[in-house]
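Archive entry. Fields below.
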Amino acid sequence: MENEHKEHLIPYGTYLLVWLSLISLTVLTVTIAGIDFGRISLFIALLIAAVKSTLVINYFMHIKYDSLLFKFFLLVALVTLASIFILTATDIFFR
Amino acid sequence: MANGTIAATLENYLEHKSKKGIFAWLLSTDHKRIGILYLVSMVTFFWVGVTLGFLMKLEMLTPGKTIVDAQTYNTFFTLHGVIMIFLFIIPGIPAVFGNFFLPIQIGARDVAFPRLNLFSWYLYIIGGLFAIASLFLQGGPIDTGWTFYVPYSIRTTTNVILPLLGAFILGFSSILTGLNFITTVHRMRAPGMSFFRMPLFVWALYATAWIQVVATPVVGITIVLVVIERVLHVGIFDPALGGDPLLFQHLFWIYSHPAVYIMILPAMGVVSEIIPTFARRTIFGYKVIAFSSLAIALIGYFVWAHHMFTSGMSDTSRMVFSLLTFLVAVPSGVKVFNWVATLYKGSIELRAPLIYVMMFIFLFSIGGLTGLVLGSLATDIHVTDTYFVVAHFHYVMFGGTAIILFAALHYWFPKMFGKMYNEKIAIWATPLIFIGFNMLYFTMFILGYLGMPRRYWSYLPEYQTLHIVSTVGSWILVLGLLLMFGNLIYALFKGKPAESNPWGGVTLEWQIPSPPPVENFEKIPVVDHGPYDFSKINENKNGKS
Amino acid sequence: MESLDVTKEVIKEEARQEAHHIGDHHHKDPIAAKIGMWLFLFTELLLFGGLFLLYMAYRLQYTKDFVIGGQELNIVLGTINTIILLTSSLTMALSIAAIQRGKKGLSLFYLISTITFGLTFLVIKYFEWTAKFSHGIAPNSPELLSKPNGEIIFYGMYYSMTGLHALHVIIGIIILSFMLFFLLRNKITSKDYIKLENSGLYWHLVDLIWIFLFPLFYLIH
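PREDICTED_STRUCTURE:
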C-alpha cells in the first residue's frame, strides 16, 4: 500500500511567502493588462494564472509533499482536460 | 458486538439477525445489500424500458397509426432511451455486481465509503423518479430524444427540465460510485493482493470508475446550462442569442461517448471472469487484458465527435476523430483474441453463464464491426440517423452489455442468494433471446441501409415486410426475457440451496460461503498467487476440505 | 522476495485487525478520505472545464464583442475580490497548519477569517451583479437583447461562470461553518484533522477557478 499518513509540517513562513508571490503576480497581471501586447496578451495572462495555480496546488494544497499517487492522479485529470480542449479545438479553429 | 463476533461474522448478509425488515435494507451500508437494492430497482426500470420498446415496435407494425399517435411515439423513444441508458445500462454492471463483488474480490469487508455508497443509491432512485415523473406532469413527457439536443430542448414546451435534472442527479450518483471504487481499489486490497493479482473484473471496474469520475461532470455542466438557459434565458447555446448548438453536441458527447465505455468495460470484465472459470485454465494474456481496459478508457475519451460527422463541424475535426475512432478497435480486438485464446484447449464446460457469454461474443462482434461502418466518414454519411445506427447500438449495448449482465446474473446468482436456479430453463431461454434479438435488430440493419430513418413514427409501405419481421422478433425476445427472469425469480423462492463454489471458480468470492457472511471474510485472506490460478486451488482443496 | 513482502504485510494486517476488532469496518483511513476528496475535486475541475471550453469557443468566435464586454466589467472590484480570495486561501492553509501543531485557538481564528473573507467576496460580487442589473444588463432583459449576439453570449458566459463559482463559494462557506463547529467540539484535533484538510482542499479549488476567471473576464483588452 501507499505510505501511511505522515504529514509534512510546512512552516507558516512558507505559506506567507506563497501568498506574497500570489499577490504580486495578481498586481503584475493587472498592470500589464493595460499594455497592449497584441495577440500574446491572452497568452501572458493565462501563463501568469498557470503559475499562480501551480503555487496554490503545490503549497496550499500540499501536492508537493504528497505521495506519488496524488501527483499521478492530478496528471490524469489534467491530461484529460487538455485532451478535450485540444480535440475540440480541431473543430472550432478549423471551421 | 465484541462478544460472539465470530457468530455475527458468519451469519449471512441476507439473514442478519439484528437487521431485518425493509428499513434494515433501505438504511444498510453493507455493499452487498446495496448491490441488491440496485439490482431490484434496476430490473424494475429495465422492464419499464422493455415495455416502452415493445410498444414502439408494436406501433411500427403498420405505416401510420397502429396504437399511438406521433407525439406519444416521440415521448416513447425518448423515455425508452433515457431509462435504458441512464437507469439501466450505465449503472448496470458496476452498481449491482461491482458493489457486490469488488470488495469481495479484493479481499475487503466493504467499499471505502459505505455511507456514500448508500447515498449514491438514493441519488439513483431520486434521479430515476425525476426522469419518470415528467410522464405525469402538466406539459407532457419529454420528446427530445435521449440526447436532449439544443435548440429543440430549449424551445419544446414539454417537461424537459425534470428529466434533465434527473440525468444530472444520476450523473452525480455515478460519479460517487466511481470515486468510491477507485478509493476502494487503492486502499482496501487484502495483504498480498497486488494490482497484478486483482481479478480482471476489478481492473475493468477500476478503468470504468475513472471514466465515471472525469467524464460525467462535463455532461453535468451541460445539462445545468440547458436548464439555466430554459429558465433564465441566459444566452449560452441558443442560436437566436448567438449561441452555437454544435458546442452542446461536443460537450454532450464528451461525456456520452466515454459513457459507452462505462457501459461496456465492466461487461468485458465479467467475460474475463466467466471464461477462465468454465475453461478451467488461467486467462490468456492477463496483463494485456488489464491494460487494454485502461487503453479503452483512455482512447474512448478521444473519439466523441464521431457522433457528429454530419453535424457541420470542420473537416479537420472529422478526419481526426474518424482516425482516432479506428484506434478503439485495437484494444477491443486484443480482448476478444485473448478470450478466444483462453478457450482454446481449455476443458470447456458449457454451463448457462458461458452460453450467455458465447451469445455476447457473437452479437458484440456484429455490433463492433458495424461500428466500423459508422466510424468511417464516407459510409457513415449514407447510414447516419437511420435504423442502421439503431441496430448498431442495440447490438453493442443490448447484445453486449445487457446480455453480459444476464450472464453475470447467472454466474453470480448462486453466490448472491445462496440458491440455485434451474439451469435447463436458463439455457432454454437463450435460443429464444438469440433468435428474437436477431430478428428484431438485424432487420434494422437492412432497413437502415435501405434508408429507413430512425425516430420516425410512420414509413413507406415498401418497408413493411421487414418491420413486421422486426416486430415479431420483439415478441420472441420478450418471451425469452420473461422465461429467463421468471426462472430466476422462481429460484429465489423455491431454488435448491447452492454450494459455496458451484462452478469451481478460483477468485476470492468462491472461497466464502453462499450467500456471503455479513463481513464477507471470517479473517481477511492473504493472497499469494494470481487470480486465475487453477493448479494452486486444486492443491489447496485437498488440505482444506 | 515477494513472499517476504507478503509476510510483512501479513504482520501489518494482523496488527490492524487487533486494533480494530473484526466487524468494525468503519476504521478511519485519512489517506482514503483524501483520495476521495481529490477525485471529487477532479470532477469539479472537469465541470468548470466544460464552461472554459465554451468560453474558448465563443471568445474565438466573438473576439471583438468579448473585448467590449470585458471593458464594461469593474476591474477594481475584480482585483479586490481576487486579493480577498487569495488571502482567504492563505488563512485556510494557516488554519490547517495551526491545528497540525495543536493550536486550536489559532486555528479557530484563521478559520473564522477565511469564512469572513469568503462572505466579503460574496458581498462584493453581489454589488457587482446588482450594478449590472440596474444598468439593465440582466439575462433576457431588453437592454441586453438589443446588443450584438457576441455581447449577449459574453454576459451569458459571465453570469453562468461567475454564478456557478459564487455558488461554490457559498457551499464552501457552509462547509467551513460545519468545520468551525467540529473544531469547537474537538471533533477536529491535531491527531485527526482530515475533515478540515479536505474542506481546505475544496476551498483552494474554488480559489483556483477564480484565478482563471479573473483574467479571462476582467482583463480583456
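CURATOR_NOTE: Chain A is about 70% helix and 0% strand.
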